[in-house]
Write a structure and sequence with these properties.
mainly alpha, 3 strands, Alpha-lytic protease prodomain-like, disordered N terminus, 2 domains, Alpha-Beta Plaits, 290 residues
Amino acid sequence: MEVSHENPRSLQAGKTLLLTSFITLGFFFVELAGGILTGSLALLADSSHMAGDCLSLLVAWFASYLARRPRNIAKTYGYHRVEVLAALGNAMALWVISGFILANAIERFRRPPEVLISPMIIIAATGLIVNIICALILRRESKGNLNVKGAYLHVLSDMMGSLGAIIGGVTMKLTGSYWADPLVSGFICILLSISSLRLMINSLNILLEGVPGHLNVNEIRLELLAVSGVEDIHDLHVWSVGSGMDMLTGHITVNSQNQNQVDDILNQASRRLKEKFNIEHTTLQPEQKT
C-alpha cells in the first residue's frame, strides 16, 4: 500500500495565517501613522514589527499553500520543506529588523526627541489588543507546525513591543523624561532575537535531517527491541520532512523464517511507533537471524 505524505495540518494552517495577515496589515497602517504623528520610536519599531509580521504571515501562508501541492516524480516527498524554509526565513528576518531598530534606539538614547505621550499610549494599547487576538488565533496551529510557529513568534514579539510601548509611554508621562522610548525599543529587539533563535535552530535541524527534538533514538530502539520476535536493530534513521511529519527507517533482525510471522512482527513494530511516538511513516527492512 502506498504511503501518503500529505500533511493535513497545512490546510488549516493556511486559513489561520491568511486571516491574521489581514488583521495585522490593517493595524500596521494605523500604528505607522501614529508613530510618525507622535514621534515615538517605540511605535515606529512596533509598526516595523507589524510590517514584518504581515510579511511573515503571508510568506508562511504561501509556504503552506505550496506544501499542499501533490508530490510528483521529481519531488517524491512533496513540498513540505518549503514551510521549514519559510520558518527559517522568518527567524532571519527578525534578526535584521532587530538590528535596524536597535541602531536607531542607540542614537535616540543619546538625544531623545520629544514624544506625544497620550496618543502613543492609546495606539500602543490598541496594538496590544490586535496582537493578542492574532496570537490566540495562531496559538493552536503553532504547536504542530514550525511554519506557523515562526509567524506566531513574530506576533508574540510584536505583542511584547506594544506592551513595551505602553510601559514606555506611562514612564515618560510620570517622569517627564523621553529616554524610556528608545530604551523600550532596545528591549523589544532583545526579545525578538531571543525568541527567533530557537526557531532558527529547529528549522536548521530539520533541513540537516537531524532527529526531531521531541524524539529520542534510544527510546525508539528499546521500544522496537521490546517487540516479540525482534532480535536486533541497526541502521536506524529518524528525521522529519516537515512539522508533524516524522520519518523512520531501519533494519531489524527477526528470529523467524516464516513470512507470515515476519509480517506480523513488522506490523507490531509499526503500530508501536505510531502509538507511542506518533511516527506514521516507517520503513522497516526485516533480516533473518543467521
